[in-house]
């Protein structure tokens, strides 16, 4: 079957990463903000699936507080499923979406995943030759790059969110964008601008939303899902690294319920494990270091000119595993929750806490649009917490609001996690790909301004001057 969807990606991501959708293939045209207008470029890509018609059930088990999906029963009415508490909520894809997606039922997927781990050669051979296959109609000599990958059928639109805050949604409506893939930092920025800029446009062409680059906090996830996606578009919140070559932990839209902030489960063939500080695998629920066991297609093989550093960085700390450098929690249902870089873990008065957890608590406050947390050396506590906070548009800065933000953290995490200092920031220092430069914030908070270092990757260098001017406010 052929589709003419358009994939829209914000300018905050510089590389094309294909969403892991076993779904209709996207084909239309592409433009760049700095380019002259171009004519539509068409490529036909066909996907053949041999699986039978999909049937779904949305069922709630009150006693175990989980969502089961079973192919033998169908409930056409409920699109959103809430578990016992908001923290446990799960979003179930609509029947309409599931019928359009070429996704087997949950048990079928789990069986396929198990086989991809136990019999990888046979599994991928079958995927390539019989279960489903790509039929491409294109000239093998035709050049392409990461922004126009005609082998995948993905055409990407890159736009800036100016001259107004509704720019993204204007593009979505104008070009009938079906997949909107961006970074959490832009999602939080769009939240800050307010819902009214989103709701001015229909966005009815949107089919799937995507997030990557850093963990997305549940508050931003819910806004993305409910406001941008009108509670009907699944979110593919992927975890991967440049080094992994592809998405490693990712939702398969339509295959199972989504939990706000969770990257869900490993992709086919990926043996994701959580280990403790001694390198022992943690079974079931647990909190530790995310590692990959065994090899996978696309893994990096060396660092150019420095193979010793490659071995030391990725394999020395936990022998026998690829160490991702990220912390991870696995909940009672087996969902993976990425907690951020382990070198972003703070040690405050003997308490170890990730910066992402504190940032998530801050952003849950109704007046906070975005936050970045860093640790500063402290002679008594080991480290003190400093937070840089960007407020929702129109909200005034005040000492009362600072205290309210601290109280939110005390309530959600504990008194030990309350920041020693909250700095107001009109904007946060970000790279062109949307990453927050926390090392820069650390130097500003420590007033080591002559040690800020290289800032050539900043998207907007003027942000530094604003932050330095505000540091004592």
TrEMBL record:
<dbReference type="InterPro" id="IPR000873">
    <property type="entry name" value="AMP-dep_synth/lig_dom"/>
</dbReference>
<comment type="similarity">
    <text>Belongs to the ATP-dependent AMP-binding enzyme family.</text>
</comment>
<keyword id="KW-0436">Ligase</keyword>
<dbReference type="Pfam" id="PF13193">
    <property type="entry name" value="AMP-binding_C"/>
</dbReference>
<keyword id="KW-0067">ATP-binding</keyword>
<dbReference type="InterPro" id="IPR032387">
    <property type="entry name" value="ACAS_N"/>
</dbReference>
<feature type="domain" description="AMP-binding enzyme C-terminal">
    <location>
        <begin position="357"/>
        <end position="435"/>
    </location>
</feature>
<dbReference type="Pfam" id="PF16177">
    <property type="entry name" value="ACAS_N"/>
</dbReference>
<keyword id="KW-0547">Nucleotide-binding</keyword>
<feature type="domain" description="AMP-dependent synthetase/ligase">
    <location>
        <begin position="164"/>
        <end position="295"/>
    </location>
</feature>
<dbReference type="GO" id="GO:0005524">
    <property type="term" value="F:ATP binding"/>
</dbReference>
<feature type="domain" description="Acetyl-coenzyme A synthetase N-terminal">
    <location>
        <begin position="109"/>
        <end position="142"/>
    </location>
</feature>
<protein>
    <recommendedName>
        <fullName>acetate--CoA ligase</fullName>
        <ecNumber>6.2.1.1</ecNumber>
    </recommendedName>
</protein>
<dbReference type="GO" id="GO:0003987">
    <property type="term" value="F:acetate-CoA ligase activity"/>
</dbReference>
<dbReference type="InterPro" id="IPR045851">
    <property type="entry name" value="AMP-bd_C_sf"/>
</dbReference>
<dbReference type="GO" id="GO:0006085">
    <property type="term" value="P:acetyl-CoA biosynthetic process"/>
</dbReference>
<dbReference type="InterPro" id="IPR042099">
    <property type="entry name" value="ANL_N_sf"/>
</dbReference>
<dbReference type="Pfam" id="PF00501">
    <property type="entry name" value="AMP-binding"/>
</dbReference>
<dbReference type="InterPro" id="IPR025110">
    <property type="entry name" value="AMP-bd_C"/>
</dbReference>
């Amino acid at each position: 079957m052929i589709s003419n969807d358009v994939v829209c990606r914000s300018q905050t991501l510089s590389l094309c990463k294909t969403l892991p959708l076993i779904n209709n293939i996207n084909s239309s045209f592409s433009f760049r903000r700095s380019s002259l207008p171009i004519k539509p470029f068409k490529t036909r890509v066909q996907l053949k699936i041999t699986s039978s018609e999909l049937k779904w059930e949305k069922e709630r088990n009150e006693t175990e507080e989980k969502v089961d999906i079973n192919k033998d029963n169908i409930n056409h009415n409920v699109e959103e499923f809430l578990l016992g508490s908001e923290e446990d909520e799960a979003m179930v894809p609509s029947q309409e979406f599931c019928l359009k997606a070429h996704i087997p039922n949950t048990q079928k997927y789990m069986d396929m995943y198990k086989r991809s781990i136990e019999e990888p050669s046979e599994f991928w051979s079958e995927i390539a030759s019989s279960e489903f296959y790509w039929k491409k109609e294109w000239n093998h000599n035709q050049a392409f790059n990461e922004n126009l990958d005609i082998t995948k059928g993905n055409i990407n639109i890159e736009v800036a969110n100016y001259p107004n805050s509704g720019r993204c949604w204007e593009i979505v409506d104008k070009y009938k964008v079906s997949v909107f893939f961006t970074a959490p930092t832009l999602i939080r920025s769009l939240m800050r601008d307010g819902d009214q800029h989103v709701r001015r446009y229909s966005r009815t062409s949107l089919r799937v939303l995507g997030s990557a680059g850093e963990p997305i906090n549940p508050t931003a996830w819910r806004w993305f899902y409910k406001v941008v996606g009108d509670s009907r578009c699944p979110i593919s919140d992927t975890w991967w690294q440049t080094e992994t070559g592809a998405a490693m932990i990712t939702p398969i839209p339509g295959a199972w319920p989504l939990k706000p902030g969770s990257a869900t489960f490993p992709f086919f063939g990926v043996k994701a494990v959580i280990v403790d500080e001694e390198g022992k695998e943690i079974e079931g629920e647990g909190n530790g270091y995310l590692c990959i066991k065994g090899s996978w297609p696309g893994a990096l093989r060396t660092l150019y000119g420095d193979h010793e550093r490659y071995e030391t960085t990725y394999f020395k700390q936990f022998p026998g595993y690829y160490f991702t450098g990220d912390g991870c929690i696995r909940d009672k249902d087996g969902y993976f929750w990425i907690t951020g870089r382990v070198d972003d873990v703070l040690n405050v008065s003997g308490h170890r806490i990730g910066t992402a957890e504190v940032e998530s608590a801050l952003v849950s406050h109704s007046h906070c649009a975005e936050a970045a947390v860093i640790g500063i050396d402290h002679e008594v506590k080991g480290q003190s917490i400093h937070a840089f906070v960007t407020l929702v548009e129109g909200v005034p800065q005040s000492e009362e609001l600072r205290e309210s933000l601290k109280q939110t953290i005390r309530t959600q995490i504990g008194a030990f996690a309350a920041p020693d200092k909250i700095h107001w920031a009109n904007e946060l220092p970000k790279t062109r790909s949307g990453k927050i430069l926390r090392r820069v914030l650390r130097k500003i908070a420590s007033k080591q301004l002559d040690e800020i270092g290289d800032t050539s990757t900043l998207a907007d260098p003027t942000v530094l001057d604003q932050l330095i001017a505000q540091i004592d406010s």
